[in-house]
Design brief:
mainly alpha; 0% strand; elongated
């Protein structure tokens, strides 16, 4: 697996973890007083988020992105479904 494939995998995993955090873990915590899922998914999401941001910084130089594109790519990681959009629009066309 080359680095762009790894970045795309982390991108999708980060997006899924954000959706799980918002759609499953947080409702369980606040509606059923069950914080365990937030602890698990939250830690996983945090690690994936940091990995995503580091990959974005590395690929800023490889793909010759401007600072504006880097900001868009990083900002998308805090919006539900944002990383899926970034994968389709920016990462799909990067060659290894």
């Amino acid at each position: 697996m080359n680095l762009i494939q790894l970045f795309r995998t982390v991108s999708v995993a980060e997006g899924v973890s954000l959706l799980l955090l918002f759609g499953v873990a947080m409702p369980l915590k606040y509606m059923y007083d069950s914080p365990l899922m937030v602890e698990i998914v939250g830690m996983l999401h945090g690690l994936l988020f940091i990995s995503y941001v580091l990959f974005a910084i590395v690929y800023k130089f490889k793909a010759k992105w401007g600072i504006d594109t880097l900001i868009i790519v990083i900002t998308a990681s805090i919006v539900p479904f944002g990383t899926f959009y970034i994968d389709k629009k920016y990462l799909k066309n990067i060659t290894a």
